[in-house]
Amino acid sequence: MAAICDDLEAEKASVVALVAPLDESGWDIETPAPPWTIRDQVSHLAFFDEKALLAHADPEAFLAELADGRAAEVIDRQLEQGRSMSGRELLAWWDRANADLTAVYRTLDPKERVVWYGPPMAARSKITARIMETWAHGQDVADALAVVRSPTDRLRHVCHIGVRARSFAYIANGLVPPQIDVFVSLEAPDGSRWEWGEPGSEQRVSGSALGFALLVTQRRHRDDVDVRSVGDTAEQWMSIAQAFAGPPGEGRVAGQFAHVDGAA
Question: For the chain, first and last CA: distance in Å?
């Protein structure tokens, strides 16, 4: 838990490095998820770091919020709260929420179950999901600023949750998850390989870890990443893949980030 919490803190720091120099007008730049601005992306991360802590510290209060229907209002409340703050105040909020979250989760058994908006999650999986969310919303910020980020080994967490969420992607799209193994082999930033599934499977997905992470978080269109699939099941999965909870997103338009990615 200490190591994965270190990775969450490092991922947060990488986003803070992008936004800390912004003036107030910079915080209101629209991101590729309109009408959300950079301010909204960061408030989303701060708000749900707080919620992840509440889910462990006071699960009854967390579940009560779900039971009385207030869960539907959480996004509106997150946006309202963030938009009432200056950029400096927003960063202070996120610093506090993230530090409180990791301080508690460092002490937990990795397998301890914690309530959440879907089924309860293991504590380690909860932090993995927070890393994925931080990386994905950080990508929105980077794209809004036309910044190319260097991939790190923390991408393994994003790719892992993308693989683990395969069945969920089918269910979210109203489909029955196929009981067929898909072998995933990705090139890590350091040139090594990260693999999931059975190497002998006829259904295969390959490419860079960065491309796969961008695809499963729906931050790039399928045509704009170097992810390749072999077999009908693998191809279908890549067409609907999502690492995040909730309904399928609208994704991105092909070629939308050529002006950013072309600088890499």
Answer: 33
> Is 0.85 topped by the overall pTM?
yes
For residue 193, the cross-strand partners are 187
Alpha-carbon span 101 to 90, nearest angstrom: 16
* 154 vs 11: CA distance, rounded Å: 8
pLDDT confidence bin for 264, thresholds 50/70/90: very low
Tell me if 136 sits within 8 A of 161, measured CB to CB.
Answer: no
Per-residue pLDDT at 50? 95
Q: What is the mean pLDDT of residues 168-186?
A: 96
CB 40 within 8 Å of CB 82? yes
Q: How far apart are CA 219 and CA 150, in angstroms?
A: 16
Contact 134/94 with Cβ under 8 angstroms? no
Element (H, E) at 49: helix 38-57
pLDDT over 70, % of the chain: 97
- Are the CB atoms for 194 and 252 separated by under 8 Å? no
